[in-house]
């Protein structure tokens, strides 16, 4: 069910690993100063690391929603919190039309009499829209009613924050890529890559099991 996502995520991991292996022999040994362009190359790995995390999360959630929709379940079949996804457009309509709130409320609750099949928009990501780190993952876990640990290893929470912070600093111009890269070695980056690989595999597995065991049902 998630084989394409697994393959694409693994391919991105391999691409980053090849990049690190390419620049590693170019970096001089101390006390020779590392050229700025090589520090920049190291810094940009944080952008790549975040990219594979975001790809894995977004595509896995989209696929999960697609499979829930394909399960032919009605509103009454799913856990109550899943309704926040299934009725997203109706809930947004109430928020966006305060002068017609009672009409919108009537429309919303009338749906339960009809009890239609669940049809969730596949581009929904139940977060605040910010970069993906612990608060966003926690929100995803709550909305999908997951009971598994959020991380395969609790230490990855700090690792993820480190990756997100460095990625944001580079992308927003707060720090040059060379400045970020000067603080890490290629070995440091390889360790981070291994951690990201394990997290991505774990994340996909959690949702794969979620679908297999139909954990979205009451």
TrEMBL record:
Highest taxon listed in the record's lineage: Bacteria
> The RiboL-PSP-HEPN domain covers which part of the protein?
12-208
Q: Which Pfam families does the record associate with it? A: HEPN_RiboL-PSP
Which named protein is this?
RiboL-PSP-HEPN domain-containing protein
């Amino acid at each position: 069910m998630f084989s394409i996502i697994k393959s694409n995520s693994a391919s991105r991991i391999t691409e980053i690993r090849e990049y690190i292996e390419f620049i590693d022999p170019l970096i001089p040994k101390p006390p020779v100063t590392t050229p700025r362009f090589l520090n920049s190359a190291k810094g940009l790995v944080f952008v790549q690391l975040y990219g594979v995390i975001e790809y894995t999360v977004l595509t896995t959630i989209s696929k999960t929603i697609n499979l829930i929709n394909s399960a032919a379940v009605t509103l009454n079949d799913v856990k109550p919190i899943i309704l926040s996804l299934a009725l997203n457009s109706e809930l947004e309509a109430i928020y966006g039309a305060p002068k017609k709130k009672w009409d919108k409320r009537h429309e919303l609750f009338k749906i339960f009499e009809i009890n239609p099949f669940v049809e969730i928009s596949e581009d929904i990501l139940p977060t605040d829209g910010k970069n993906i780190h612990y608060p966003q993952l926690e929100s995803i876990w709550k909305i999908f009613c997951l009971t598994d640990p959020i991380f395969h290893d609790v230490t990855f929470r700090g690792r993820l924050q480190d990756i997100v912070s460095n990625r944001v600093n580079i992308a927003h111009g707060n720090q040059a890529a060379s400045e970020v890269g000067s603080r890490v070695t290629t070995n440091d980056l390889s360790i981070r890559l291994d951690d990201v690989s394990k997290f991505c595999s774990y994340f996909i597995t959690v949702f794969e099991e979620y679908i297999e065991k139909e954990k979205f049902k009451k």
